[in-house]
Amino acid sequence: MKEVIDLLKKQKKIELSHVAALTETMKDVENPMIKVVLETIVHDSRKHAAIAQALIDVEAGAVPHKLDMDLGPATNFNQNIKQHVRAEMEMIEMLEEIGGLVKDDRVQKFIDYLVEEEKRHHKLLKEFSLLLDRDTVAMDEYLELFQKYMIVPPE
To answer: What is the mean predicted confidence (pLDDT) over 22-31?
Structure first.
């Protein structure tokens, strides 16, 4: 457990240093396509650092092994997740339609990237929703989803 926590702390530190370096680099960038790519990477690195911290908290025992929610809030939460699953599908369909109309290969690459991101979100939310449909869900099942779709654990 200590080794995992130490590696996750190292991962978080690397992610945050990457954020600082790229943020500095972006100050001089004027091209909107390059700027948005760098902003996306910065955003993802911040997200990865936050996930690493959440995993540190779990590994350190600061998070219970089961998600305990009252039935009312749990049902509302699950319905919101299911609604977003449907929204993600609409976004995927719209982006695929746009991709079919695009002529510029630079634009097409970004559309393809967005489609893949939305598909990843869609799959994660669908699996998350299936877990919420069950009576009891172990925290390790949620962690497996985070590891599968959001970060690559350090080796």
So the answer is: 94
